[in-house]
Amino acid sequence: MKTPALLKVIIAGLSLGLGSCSTSPLSRIDQNRAKYESWPLEVQEAVLNGEARKGMTREQVEMALGKPSEIVTRSATGDDEVWVYRKGGGMGSSLLNSTGVSLGTGIGGVGVGTAVGGGGRGQTPEEKEVVFSQGVVVRSG
């Protein structure tokens, strides 16, 4: 049976996309498929979509979102935790976010100009918090 050319392109694109992101939900699912398949379908769907939903365990959230950037304990017994996930930030990202390049051209001999400068946007990294109480998610956002 021959595979249509479009299907081959789609499969190749998915392979490249999945191969370049080693911390995707799919790669984490593949590392522990038996555990994933033992969970209810609603949890499997959330993990596959990279979401943390109310009632999920720490293990399920870690498979869905990966390891958190930071864990903050809120109670003396350690039963309440906030997992913080950050995107962006860091030296490389800040440097690139504050760089601006501008080019201009003229018609009829009016002029050509270029400018390079720092944008200094002061952009903060994207942050997501997952709040656990007694080992299960009580809030995510």
What does this protein structure show overall?
A hairpin with an 8-residue loop joins strand 3 and strand 4 (113-118). Mean pLDDT is 73; it is low at 6-22, 89-104 and 114-123. The chain has helices at 5-19, 25-31, 33-38, 41-48, 58-65, 90-97, and strands at residues 70-73, 80-87, 99-104, 113-118, 126-133, 136-140. By secondary structure, it is of the alpha+beta class. It has one domain (12-102, 119-140).
Distance between the termini: 47 Å
Count of discrete structural domains: 1
Order of helices and strands: HHHHHEEHEEEE
* Strand order within the widest beta sheet: 1-2-5-6
Principal-axis shape equals globular
Poorly predicted parts: 6-22, 89-104, 114-123
SSE blueprint:
Blueprint: H1 5-19, H2 25-31, H3 33-38, H4 41-48, H5 58-65, E1 70-73, E2 80-87, H6 90-97, E3 99-104, E4 113-118, E5 126-133, E6 136-140
Antiparallel strand pairs: 1-2, 2-5, 3-4, 5-6
Helix pairs in contact: 4-5
Give a short synopsis of this structure.
This protein is α+β, with helices and mostly antiparallel strands and 141 residues long. The protein has one domain (12-102, 119-140). It has 6 helices and 6 strands.
